[in-house]
Design brief:
- With 184 residues, the protein is α/β, with parallel strands linked by helices.
- The protein has 6 helices and 5 strands.
- Strands 2-1-3-4-5 form a 5-stranded parallel sheet, with helices on both faces.
């Protein structure tokens, strides 16, 4: 049974990012995958200050909610990273979350993340696909460095208002089918 972790990096609950990630999760659940969703806006995740304590194999020095999420990341087979495009990049919530992946730099922790699989789910306001290109590149470079396999991208432009993505019926169906497929 696959273990799939959804990460919602949008501050808006029930917004376009949440809906997109939830549809992937829903498809995965339909195939009996074990799923969990983390809403970064609900958590206290502080910035990495480069102390390098984790590079020595020690727990992160920050006493915040990220420490509990590390075990969820390690326990998962596939991680869905959902973020809208904010100023041509990921949200600050997602960026701070990814910054804390420095934890996986030391040899003891690196083996806990290598060969995991990832999906990115990125809704955004503009219609031009190039608007999301920096977000795509950001994730591609991070995953390449961490040796995580990017298995799918669900990039949906032209959605602004909360819940507007539901009008994109083909993309919602695509998200659901993606969830089913990754659970096989």
């Amino acid at each position: 049974m696959k273990k799939i972790l959804g990460i919602v990096g949008s501050p808006r609950k029930n917004g376009n990012t949440d809906i997109l990630v939830s549809k992937i999760i829903e498809g995965a659940k339909s195939q009996a995958a074990k799923t969990d969703t983390v809403y970064l806006a609900d958590l206290d995740i502080r910035e990495c200050d480069g102390c390098h304590v984790c590079w020595k194999g020690n727990p992160c020095s920050k006493q915040d909610d990220m420490n509990a999420i590390y075990s969820k990341i390690i326990d998962s087979d596939i991680i869905i990273f959902g973020t809208p495009v904010y100023w041509y990049g990921p949200t600050a919530l997602m960026k701070m979350f990814i910054d804390r992946f420095v934890y996986f730099n030391c040899p003891e922790n690196r083996k806990k993340i290598v060969r995991k699989q990832a999906i990115i789910a990125v809704p955004f306001e503009e219609d031009n696909p190039a608007t999301a290109s920096l977000v795509e590149t950001f994730f591609e470079k991070c995953f390449d460095y961490l040796q995580i396999e990017l298995i799918a991208k669900l990039i949906v432009g032209g959605v602004t208002r909360k819940g507007e993505i539901l009008k994109e019926k083909d993309r919602i169906a695509e998200a659901y089918e993606l969830g089913k497929k990754i659970s096989e």
